[in-house]
Every structure is written in C-alpha cells, then in structure tokens.
Amino acid sequence: MKLKLDLHDVYNRGDEIERALLDIMQQARDKKAPLVEIIPGKGSGQLKKRVLRFLDRKDIKALYHRVEKDSDNYGRVFVHFRWK
Description:
Ribosomal Protein S8, Chain: A, domain 1, 38% helix
C-alpha cells in the first residue's frame, strides 16, 4: 500500500501544507503503510524545500525510516517506513 499526497492545490497556503503533511504521516502510521509519496511539484523548488525541512524535524524524523528524492522526477519525494 502506498499513500500519496499532492501539494499542488495548497502550494501557497502555509498552514494547510503543514496540516496536509501531518495528516499523511498520521495516516501512514495508522495504516502501517510502507511508503508515502509526496508531490510538491517542480516549480521553483521552494515547496520541496519546505517538505524536506518538515521531514527533517526531530519529532517527524522519529516516525519514518528514510526519505528518498526521486532521481527521475524532481517533483517527488518518497518517505519509507519500517513497521515492527
């Protein structure tokens, strides 16, 4: 199972971006999803930087195993989880 979050609709609303990211992380934890695909889009790269900063927070980093930036598509980030 892979969860997907497309941020194109909320790219210019900071509080909604944060809420959407928190929500998808919660969904992944609840459903024990092994993978979350986050799509910040290509654009100027500011939204992707914001997503990566969010994922680098200490409280969030404790939830997942690793982050992978898609080498084929600059506008995608994969968050991998390892559940016991």
